[in-house]
Amino acid sequence: MRIVVCIKQVPATNDASIDPETKRIVREGVKAILNPFDTYAVEEGVLLRERFGGEVVVLSMGPPKAEAVLREAVSQGADRAILLSHRAFGGSDTWATSYALACAIRKLGGADLVICGKQAVDGDTAQVGPGIAAHLGWPQATHVMQVRSATPETLVAVRMHEDGYDVCELTLPAVITVVKDINSPRVPTLRGRLASQKMEIPVWTPEMIGADTAKIGLDGSPTRVVKTEPPPPRNKASRRITGSPDVCAAELLHELRTRSLV
Amino acid sequence: MRLNPAVARGAFRNVWVVAEVLSGHIQPVTHELVGAARALADVRGSEVWAIVLGSGVAGQTGGLIACGCDAVIVVDDPAFAAFNDEAAARTLVQLIDKYRPESVLCGATTCGRALIPRVAVLADCGLTADCTGLAIDPDNGDLLQTRPAFGGNIMATIRCSNHRPQLATVRPRVMKALDADPRRTGRVIREPLTPDPSDALKRVIEVFHSTETAVNLGDASFIISGGRGLKGPEGFNLLRQLASRVGGAVGASRAAVDAGWIPYAHQVGQTGQTVQSKVYMACAISGQIQHLVGMQSCDLIIALDKNPDTPMMQIADIAIVGDLFEILPELIRQIPAT
User: Fold this and answer.
1) Is the Cβ of A196 closer than 8 Å to some Cβ of chain B?
2) What's the ipTM?
3) What is the number of domains present in chain B?
4) Are B226 and B239 in contact (CB under 8 A)?
């Protein structure tokens, strides 16, 4: 079984700054980590490989320093790693990113299963996983909280919904995105860490994956961020209530009753 | 699709809402989006259409028309009895091709956020996730889509000028539904599902609706929420007592949930639920941005805190300065049990 896990490097904090020209997020000089949801995706890939054999390939698109998160995934048990990195990929939105990742999966010779984290914690879009599935023409299951069973040809996934869950059987190849309930990621071993530091990580360019350059980067992205700003302040002329507890309670009740809210 | 000399902007018209259908019922988020779509369509002098993909849903079109739709497309097929990403995406792309909407809105639910990215790729359109604000450029119909990112620390506005239609998933309980007017009239268009060999690649074999998640903060009109200042799980008992007096529900900040004082289902905020209750009473919740984005569209916000200077105390309509362990028991005493 070949399992491709798509991962993303994200800023370690949510104190984000914005490039005034591209209006996209400044990633330089900010401590970066593996997107937390993606550690569960890597673990699920490793668990499936342990049952069915084969390999786990981790794939990321980003600047050269994104290879750090690929090494982390290798230390967690992935067999090899590939980085898509080139200036022409810069500024890609989720459409262009999922296109590039799908091209890379084709270049790999395909996969039996692609696993992504539910969403990345910087953009919070959750769009790249289904986007990859659509570009490849494969079925998908998102918000997967459990892989109930699997064979080399099929996978039975439990999908989380707001009001419960459902269970679907996918014929492979397919794409799944996973939530944190799915497993408990292992702690990398020292040996794994050492191996990951020595591993050669190939860097693939748009040309190497046969990507149409009109479909990647800022130009290949249908969406444009036209403005970024802090959230609007909500300072109101609020009514202050102070005093002893019984007075506070009585005044609040009065306010609620005049509005017919109790 | 990408606009070019052969595919003109003007060929795309109307605002569509993709209905959220769960176990055969159209969900409230659909009516909220119809309300938002109505405002956008009125700016453009165009129509609001709802697209209902479901099984046994044909009888539910009247409610959509009453709350603002000019037309409803219904694809009523057993294939849509459970959530079927692939067939739904394929069908939407066919309908988009045939009727050419200018904008398409869908709830930012687990289903909507799985379905619409697939549509965006197949129809070659731009998509903005989880919008909390929508406006429209009256001249060219560009949607101005505002959404929080970085845990709500940044609001980004996104435009998609060179592709039509423009797709957006919209956060539930942010937009307001219009009051239903049964005198409104509209058209109902029936469309068939076109079967495809790829339908065999996935089947839903079990559906489970939990009553457990009936913590449903989304439907509560009075929410009493607690944060770190509750000091422990026992603190929530006071909130529960007050909630039962006022017929409300109990919410929590992420800090209280992370501390293990109350289950995640109660969490309000960017990574929890978004609520839009009539009253939101925040007890000892400092009001970090990631919490505020989940509750700031509540009608009346009450803050109770010893510290008068927290962000929550600044944004509240009513700010009570005091100790919740003294004031809440007094409040419970003064509200007669029903």
Assistant:
1) no
2) 0.89
3) 2
4) yes
